[in-house]
Amino acid sequence: MNNSIERILELTSWHDDWAGIRVAVLGLGVTGFSVADTLCELGCDVTVIFGVADPTRQQLLEVIGAHAIELESIDDQLGALVELDPDLVIVSPGYRPDHPLTEWAESNGCVVWGDVQLAWRLRDKTTRVADWITVTGTNGKTTTTQLTAHMLVAGGLRAAPVGNIGVPVLDAIRDPEGFDVLVVELSSFQLARLGEISPFSSLCLNFADDHLDWHGSREAYWAAKAHIYKNTQVACVYNRADEATEKMVVEAEVVEGARAISFGLDTPGMSGFGIVDGILCDRAFLDDRKNTALEISTVEELAQRGLAAPHLLQNILAAAALARSRGVEPAAISEALQHFELDAHRAQLIAHLDGVSWIDDSKATNAHAASASLRAHNRVVWIVGGLLKGVDIDSLVEQSASRLAGAVVIGLERAAILDALQRHAPDIPAIEVVPGETESIMETAVRIAGSVASPGDTVLLSPAAASMDQFNDYADRGEQFIAAVKKLLGGEADGNSASER
């Protein structure tokens, strides 16, 4: 091991000497910029290598003292990395393990980390060093991360939702006030480069095929998700209705004394959270858990807040388990649920007119999420499609066929969806929106859906696919849907109706 690698591996604190280390940061998204900003503050010699990036972030690189190398070609980027010959490479989450730049770095003696691994080493900038509660899952992790942070704050702790949810962990650990708890949402991309973190408590909500094109196989995707439980100190929270998450906990190497805590919509056993006679219960964090349970909330109360869909109840139970593991009382959790608001584009009711409901669930970027959304409605005109990310959509169409009144297929990967609809729902209208044949993809899709829908139907944008083929992101896709619905209905959609997720 050469001296520079030895030195870097020994850096485990903000207060260590990071000055002069030659660092390459791969990517200039929100995460990449937070890495560059942090390492410049520590006195490293930072160069960011990227293709396309936000112009404002590019300008700010000069302000913070980082070097910028903007090159479109991966071959050119690789040449720049080789010439730079860095000691340390920090990889943004979108870079696959087999990316040429990361492969070169790992095979040529560089230390290669992700942003979360770096943040763990630097988490002691303030004397108030936060516990980390980590959250992942194929579907629902953002809502559960937000719920958990909301419950912790209601319990009197200074807490924040960070990570894949949008606020980089490195920005949070540099907050001058510090935090008691950070609730860290982790994507499978981040989990693939997690390093040696040791979370206070951890959670995998569920597991279903997603991002197989990135990970290469279902087994590799599962292994990445399973990293969430490694070195957990207090509670490994898992979904007892999902054998894949239970297997992750069984096989995890954890800190001695860490407990396995289950959640589910059925009656909980000891060390579990669940529902009994419409009451959400905790049978894990109390002395007499053999004979008694603590009440968290009721399904009836949550229904009044639009929070009683089955997948949402699972999210709430999982978040409650995490909050209880950190000592938040049930009364504080119940109070938090009375004031929790869901983000836009998550099963958001946009309008109800002439017996037809219009719902924006653009956040459903995979089949697992879309399945939960489809199950919440009896008859659906489904707006579906985008980038399928290597996932077979056939089983989703098959299990949802009985609910479909029609389908409008958008996106560049339409053929697989249309074929599945022909096989499993041949009697419903399935209309394809072809790029180039219409000025506005979403306006056309909404207009067609409106012509198919009958009173009692729900027009549901739940694409089961990523958005970047035709939209900036899922939020842009959702906003275009809302605008198109308002245009079609002549302003009757106010966008302020109660959310269902």
The stretches of 5 or more residues where confidence is low (pLDDT under 50) are 494-501
CATH topology of the largest domain: UDP-N-acetylmuramoyl-L-alanine:D-glutamate ligase
**Count of helical stretches:** 20
CATH architecture assignment name of the largest domain: 3-Layer(aba) Sandwich
What's the story with the biggest beta sheet?
A: 9 strands, mixed
Provide the CATH top-level class of the largest domain: Alpha Beta
Written description of the protein model:
The chain has 501 residues and is of the alpha/beta class. The protein has three domains: 3-119, Rossmann fold, CATH 3.40.50; 124-337, Mur-like, catalytic domain (UDP-N-acetylmuramoyl-L-alanine:D-glutamate ligase); 348-486, Alpha-Beta Complex (Protein-Tyrosine Phosphatase, Chain A). 37% of the residues lie in helices and 19% in strands. It has a nine-stranded mixed sheet, sandwiched between helices. A six-stranded mixed sheet has the order 15-16-20-17-18-19, with helices on both faces. Helix 7 crosses helix 14, helix 7 (141-154) crosses helix 15 (330-337) and helix 19 crosses helix 20 (474-488). The longest helix is centred in the middle third of the chain and has 16 residues, at 310-325. It starts with a helix and ends in a 13-residue tail after the last helix.
Element layout with pairings:
Layout: H1 3-9, E1 22-26, H2 30-41, E2 45-50, H3 55-64, E3 67-70, H4 74-84, E4 88-91, H5 100-107, E5 111-114, H6 115-121, E6 131-136, H7 141-154, E7 159-163, H8 169-173, E8 181-185, H9 188-191, E9 201-204, H10 212-215, H11 218-226, E10 235-239, H12 243-251, E11 259-263, E12 272-276, E13 279-282, E14 294-298, H13 299-304, H14 310-325, H15 330-337, E15 348-353, E16 356-360, H16 367-375, E17 380-384, H17 394-400, E18 404-409, H18 414-424, E19 430-432, H19 441-452, E20 458-461, H20 474-488
